[in-house]
Amino acid sequence: MSSSSKYYLNYLDELESEAIYVLREVWAQFQNPVILFSGGKDSIVVTHLAKKAFHPSKIPFALMHVDTGHNFPETIKFRDDIIKELGVNLIVGSVQESIDEGRVAEEKGKNATRNALQITTLLDAIEANKIDCAIGGGRRDEEKARAKERFFSHRDDFGQWDPKNQRPELWNIFNGKYFEGEHFRAFPISNWTEMDVWNYIKRENIAIPSLYFAHEREVVWRQDAWIPNSEFLVLEDHEEIVTKKIRFRTLGDITITGGIESDADTLEKIADEVSGMRQTERGNRSDDKRSESAMEDRKRQGYF
Amino acid sequence: MLDNNQLLRFTTAGSVDDGKSTLIGRLLYDSKSIFEDQLQSIETTSKKKGHEGVDLALFTDGLRDEREQGITIDVAYRYFTTPKRKFIIADTPGHIQYTRNMVTGASTANVATILVDARHGVIEQTKRHAFIASLLNIPHVIVCVNKMDLVDFSEEVFNDIVSQFEEISSKMLIKDVRFIPMSALLGDNVVNKSENMSWYQGAPMLNMLETMHISSDVNKIDARFPVQTVLRPQNESYRDYRGYAGRIASGVFRVGDEVTVMPSGFTSVIKSINLNDQDLEEAFAPMSVAMTLEDDIDISRGDMIVRSNNKPEATQDLEVMLCWLNNSPAKPRAKYTIKHTSNDQKAMIKEVIYKIDINTLGRNEDDKDLKMNDISKVKIRTTKPLMIDDYRENRTTGSLILVDDDTNETVAAGMIV
To answer: Domain count of chain B?
Structure first.
């Protein structure tokens, strides 16, 4: 708390207080909640908030990672380090296993991704581990379908979201009641914007993967973004690999996450850069570019 | 942004025709809160639909069905920030069949903005929106008299609408009401001051939102701390730690305060107030903290810690203004789960006293059915006491929801009177 001489909170303290309240409600209302941890900044902030919400107890949730196999190596290392530091369990849902077991089929073609395949893996992992609430770092400002998401968001026994038939959410009273086989998603940082997240990371000095800071990297220009070179990249004839100083605004699969050219190598510089951005952060994610309602369609099926 | 910048939540109610979406689009556009790729996507859709220019309204329609039908059916949340404040807009539809969505959006708002079409003046819908703002006890109301360009920016027309509104609002409990003549389409008095209405001495809407006093919107008098969960760490250094975790609903708590735990009635003294690893001397609403007490008392979720010299009422009998939210009407004498702060109990609607005709605001004592969007005064009996305050005094300890145990759906929202 920055000052206690005044009796009002600044916007970051109010957002933090709201998120801590939501996390404690999740803990009180569910039997077996987990934090969906991707290694991206939003799930890192949620994990940090959980640390604060339950201090001096340790975080009472396991972290769950849906592993597409198409990871940035830096993200996996970051994940393993944070698990060790917090002393919590890690649950991994593997998309590769879902493919091997024939639960899903790999997409074909040059823009093939494993993005949509995660839905099956996620829902299988939720069922196998008897998880009744998966806490995510989704924010309402990210995408238009997310603007109508609740803090406590109901999923039916097929894991599906029914956006037109959501439970009304009034004041700060959350209804997490469910029947056997159903589950919830909870979004403690619903009301945060990308800028709020960066300002908070800066204020709290939260550790984030090096990928967010400007660094030299081999990349290729595709769909208006710098896609990183990796073992999964298949080059087209006209494409060429170049080395650029870039950083990532969001982290997803290495195959679909586009970087931006940047010199921002400190949290200060990143926050400054983000505040001047004229494009949304998901503008660099090819998973959202497929159609006007790409996110809504995936969310209905059970996506994050 | 500065460290002391506050967060302001406001709600907009309106229908397709009164320019609500245009107003929001204008606010976001002129405050440079719309990103280029969002604008591009709106431009593409506008062209596809054959609209002239950019239809800013498209920006506020979220789900596919809504975009296709051109309506807003649910509460959508929008965000923007200026150098002075962060804003959250709860954008709700304005038609009578969406009363429940308006009530939902209004429940957390500091400010209600009510749109009036300058050509039509105060109509039934305006009355309904004002009533919801008053019922939900929204601290501030801004009446946006829109489409002033279509009435030649006439001061007379504006003053006339102000008197019409004041006539209806004088019968309601609205503490702070302000009026702005504007044209959202042309941008007059939204972000920038209108050059067409020099007779208007007040501030444009954004400036008003940026500067209005909201620190007093939260009750800082009656100290209430509903316990969400108890923290009992399993580690050596905190062996005897027993922290009561929660979000302060109202008032201020200080270390050393004498407190009473309700409903048990045991008293103790606050030993420490913690936020993460910090020890605080005092904490106030709406902070999330953990408290420890000097005495070892049995306290669990649903209990409320209050200052001993200022207690809420503990009662099983409530009088409530109830808004029905569900497609299935209330079942006579059925049991529901009542959720009030962190407390869950069973409850029964014992009696419907009257229903409000939301257009005339008259009371109907003959029609006792509770159907979707109905607002009624009812008597509720709970199986165990709740620790309550009047909703007018306290939006947290005065509010509740009812959950149908057969469907688990949230079926009603209540304000204690």
So the answer is: 3
| Percent of chain A with pLDDT strictly greater than 90 | 54
Strand ranges across the sheet with A62-67: A90-94, A62-67, A33-36, A133-135, A183-186, A152-155
pLDDT at site A110? 66
- In the CATH scheme, what architecture does the domain A11-196+293-301 have? 3-Layer(aba) Sandwich (3.40)
The pLDDT tens digits for B216-246 are 899 999 999 999 999 999 888 888 899 999 9
Q: Which residues make beta-bridge pairs with B335?
A: B348
Residue B36 lies in a domain: yes
Confidence of residue B73 (pLDDT cuts 50, 70, 90): low
Domain boundaries, chain A: 11-196+293-301, 207-288
Nearest-neighbour CA in chain B from A24: distance (Å):
7
Asked whether the beta carbons of residue B340 and residue A53 sit closer than 8 angstroms, the reply is: no
CB contact under 8 A, A196 and B86: yes
User: In this model, does residue A171 exceed pLDDT 50?
Assistant: yes
A290 or B278: whose pLDDT is higher? B278
Contacts of B6 in chain A (CB under 8 A): 8-11, 14
Residue predicted with more confidence, A156 or A110:
A156
Q: How far apart (Å, rounded) are the C-alpha atoms in residues B341 and B266?
A: 20
- Note whether B302 and B317 are same-domain residues: no
Number of Cα atoms under 13 Å in the Cβ half of residue B54: 16
Residues recorded for chain A: 304
Contact assessment for residue B206 and residue B190, using Cβ atoms and an 8 Å cutoff: yes
User: Which of B249, B277, B307 is the endpoint of a domain?
Assistant: B307
Which residue range(s) make up the domain with B338? 313-416
Asked if B247 lies within 8 A of A17 by C-beta distance, the reply is yes
B302 & B320 share domain: no
Rounded CA separation B106/B112 (Å):
7
Chain-chain contact of A166 with B74 (C-beta, under 8 angstroms): yes
The mean pLDDT value for B2-28 works out to 82
Mutate to test the interface with A, among B75, B240, B276 (most CBs of A within 10 A): B276
pLDDT at residue B35, as a whole number: 72
CATH label of the domain that carries residue B250: 2.40.30.10
Tell me: do B204 and B267 sit in the same domain. no
